[in-house]
């Protein structure tokens, strides 16, 4: 921890002292501001000066590593230099929580949590519930160690990282924040579209913390439509041509289902596997649930959106598991709206869906790939987000 108190409950932040001053402080007794147990000064040459508990026990302030401590101090100093009213490890007595950083801008209360270690979903939801209770906006910045770059503008995102997706209002692009305390770089990943359940493409912006301002965290940056279309094409090529490893059990089961319906990746229509922003609410890959949806459209007349949602309900995750997102959309509705813009389906006033040109199977992989390319060109022309 960066902050401790003395016997008079006066706060001390070691990182703000010079080394000679820290040496003089070593004769004093300090205590953890959370559990009130004794702590000692740690001030080596390889890490930022901090306090540590004398005894190992259960305390929310215990177990933070050097990477986290350095990043927390760097973020605090960054905000301080911008003349913001900011506090380090400030205790919120009403909810018994101590965020890494607390700041106020006008009447707006904000906390920043710099998360470098894994926490449980229960703990994550509990902490956000507390902030919501006090009308505090939380900003969770993941450690740079969680940023797994797959390509120029693609990240692999596990279920843990997907919990931290932010959206401040319905017109704000889905956003993830990362900060590396070693390179002192801030990473913004915005306007996420999921090519797979755990693979997202978006606008990836990497910038030195020193050159960034706090309000830049709230700017809206969108994905280049050409990048989105090209990435869609690459994933479709893999889907149609590459064999499935045996350890990918969900995908193997899906392929067996396809074959039972006399379908195959090579002859599925080009609009199967399209990336949608709210894919994170479904726990299977886009090409899987979109194929299930296709089968329903082929074999039912007058099927409605609500009926399609019901068919896939077992695969849905609760929006309550994503407390940083203010306005979630149903990914099936989102997908069908894209298909309507592409003139692939027609949606009646009663919410009934029908395929405009029916369904035809491709005769070869080359024919399918050509259709994929034509669709990719159409994707470049549709409006995939609301620009304000």
UniProtKB/TrEMBL annotation:
Residues 16-60 form the Competence protein CoiA-like N-terminal domain. Residues 64-221 form the Competence protein CoiA nuclease-like domain. Residues 231-348 form the Competence protein CoiA C-terminal domain. InterPro entries: CoiA-like_N, CoiA_C, CoiA_nuc, Competence-induced_CoiA. This is Competence CoiA-like predicted nuclease.
């Amino acid at each position: 921890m960066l902050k401790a108190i003395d016997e008079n409950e006066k706060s001390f932040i070691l990182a703000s002292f010079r080394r000679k001053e820290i040496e003089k402080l070593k004769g004093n007794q300090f205590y953890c501001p959370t559990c009130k147990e004794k702590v000692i000064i740690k001030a080596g040459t390889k890490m930022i000066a901090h306090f540590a508990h004398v005894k190992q026990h259960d305390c929310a302030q215990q177990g933070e590593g050097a990477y986290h401590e350095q990043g927390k101090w760097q973020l605090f100093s960054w905000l301080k230099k911008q003349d913001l009213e900011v506090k380090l490890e400030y205790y919120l007595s009403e909810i018994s929580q101590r965020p890494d950083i607390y700041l106020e801008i006008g009447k707006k209360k904000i906390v920043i949590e710099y998360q470098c270690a894994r926490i449980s979903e229960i703990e994550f939801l509990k902490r956000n519930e507390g902030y919501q209770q006090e009308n505090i906006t939380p900003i969770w910045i993941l450690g740079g160690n969680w940023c797994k770059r797959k390509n120029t503008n693609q990240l692999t995102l596990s279920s843990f990282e997907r919990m931290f997706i932010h959206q401040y209002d319905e017109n704000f692009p889905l956003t993830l924040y990362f900060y590396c305390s070693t390179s002192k770089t801030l990473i913004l990943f915005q306007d996420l579209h999921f090519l797979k359940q755990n693979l997202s493409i978006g606008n990836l912006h990497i910038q030195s913390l020193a050159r960034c301002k706090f309000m830049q965290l709230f700017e809206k940056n969108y994905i280049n439509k050409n990048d989105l279309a090209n990435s869609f094409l690459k994933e479709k090529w893999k889907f149609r041509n590459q064999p499935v490893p045996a350890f990918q059990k969900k995908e193997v089961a899906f392929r067996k289902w396809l074959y039972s319906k006399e379908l195959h990746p090579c002859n599925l229509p080009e609009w199967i596997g399209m990336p949608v922003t709210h894919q994170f609410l479904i726990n299977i890959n886009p090409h899987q649930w979109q194929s299930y949806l296709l089968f329903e459209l082929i074999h039912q007349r007058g099927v409605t959106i609500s009926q399609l949602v019901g068919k896939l309900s077992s695969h849905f995750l609760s929006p309550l598991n994503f407390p940083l997102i203010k306005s979630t959309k149903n990914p099936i509705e989102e997908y069908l709206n894209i298909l309507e813009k592409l003139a692939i389906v027609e949606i009646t006033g009663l919410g009934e869906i029908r395929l405009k040109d029916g369904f035809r199977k491709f005769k070869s992989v080359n024919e399918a790939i050509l259709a994929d390319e034509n669709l990719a060109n159409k994707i470049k022309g549709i409006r995939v987000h609301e620009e304000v």
